[in-house]
Amino acid sequence: MSEIPKDLSYAKTHEWIANDGDGTVTIGITEYAQGSLGDLVFVELPEAGTKVSAGDAVAVVESVKAASDIYAPVNGEIVEINEDLDESPERVNEDPFGQGWLFKMAVNNADDLDGLLDAAAYGEIVDAEES
Amino acid sequence: MTTMTEQLIFEHSRPGRQAAAQAPASAPTIDDLPATAMRRTALGLPEVSELDVVRHYTRLSQQNFSIDTHFYPLGSCTMKHNPRACNTLASLPGFLGRHPLAPARHGQGMMACFYELQEMLKTVTGMAGVSLTPMAGAQGEFTGVAMIKAYHEARGDYERDEILVPEAAHGTNPATAVMCGCKVVEIPADGDGDVDVAALREKVGPKTAGIMLTNPSTLGVFEQDILEISKMIHEAGGLLYYDGANLNAILGKARPGDMGFDVIHMNLHKTFSTPHGGGGPGSGAVGVGKRLLDFMPIPVVGRDGEGEGTTYRWLDERDVPHTIGRLSAFMGNAGVLLRAYIYARLLGREGMTRVAEFATLNSNYLMTRLKAAGFDVAYPERKASHEFIVTLKRQKQELGVGAGDFAKRLLDYGYHAPTVYFPLLVPECLLIEPTETESRETIDGFVDAMIAIWDEARVDATTLTEAPFNLPVRRLDEVAAAKNLDLKFEAETGDARSVA
Fold it and tell me: Where is the Lipoyl-binding domain (chain A) (predicted)?
């Protein structure tokens, strides 16, 4: 059973979302997602300033097995990206909830965050995929 | 198989050594090129004897995994035997010696072959026209979607820019749609591996340019609702594109034209047994329904007259008024097309049907035997098409060995690995395609190897996780290879590039 921190929100496409409390959120992929993908070799991130809608494919993580899209969980604007990942995509494997964060977004409407999954609901999705 | 790693040909190089047979009889003089176009340094060619060359390349060929030496059940690639007769006949001097710029009247024989190939492909797929020029599967896909786009634009229907693609599709499908300036709309699969028709209905609309379907799908099953899907797309004003990746499963038994497809591409290097692997040359011939006849890429071979007065000519813009244009300077990969034509003639009408029958029989036999041995099949309730998916999720959870580990260990047993980790929908998957040209004994041997490997994993997982053991190179560092690709040879001592 992989780690699912209780203080984060989740999307069913395996992104985690941390509310930074200042109108921005930090987004990464979960422990389960990085484990399924295997060793990452490349992370393609959006440019800061890009306006995105919930569900847009905004980033790509590529492992030795596959390339997968990362989706914006809510409407907003990309404000910062994790530039370390350019040189060291393995950070996502080593520390998916910490140094392996992908990008930060300014959220248009804070109410949108209420529509995200909590740890328990996301845990059920992982359980269903693992069974 | 040898366990020695073969050196590069450059490492065999010794100053002054040469192969007499290839050495020029006299030093060439070049006096008709401007000085700016002349090299100032010697060419960095290896200096080796004829025997060095023969041994080097013979040893390399012995280390190769190929259909000529090993069972090659690489799902979705249709690695069937390439009959030698096709190569022999396509290499006749009359074919080899024909210059592509020679007038049509000097190439009537070759053009007759292409014309007949067009006709046979039309018949076996149920399409109204065929153009042979696309030079690879991906180019055939591009051709198909470019024609769909041109069709809508010719009708003034400029709003249609969405291409529907099932989530299990080959990655080339969404890439093709994007290359043609369309947006990709992904359609999920249902629990049986078919397109989720309810989800599809929600996404179809006035912006739908078309749908790209592989049937049988990449999940190894025949799309059960194809007629309903076809009706839905056509009623919305869209067209249907058939990805011919899996045509081998239905060749001569079911026709994409009868299912309502408007355009299809055929990988002749798969279904029609022309050699492939290592990048080609491939052939992605396209077939079209009536609506797209005027949009085909040129040249197409046309026939005038009957009997002794028959002549063949290249059809061009005058014959195909809305053509999307030319995809190559001449007639695609002409030599590959000849091989496909000869293969089709060798099979004949009955033989073509047997291709699909034995491809699916072999696949279902192999699937049934692996199931009986305890392996989990992705869609156990469905019949396999020409290929099927085994998921090793349970082995990964219980023993810590996944699809990649089984694949590496299979190499030690003398089998080319099946396709791994595709389609992405199925965790720890092996996509296995035996093809019709394998015997029952070969397939049984593969089953024995799979069982033996599973047994090894129960005893000691490292037998798999550290495999292969018996090959010239051991487990490769795939992360390093992807991140720090280094293909350039640098001689450690001296300068291997200097030529005396």
Answer: 24-106
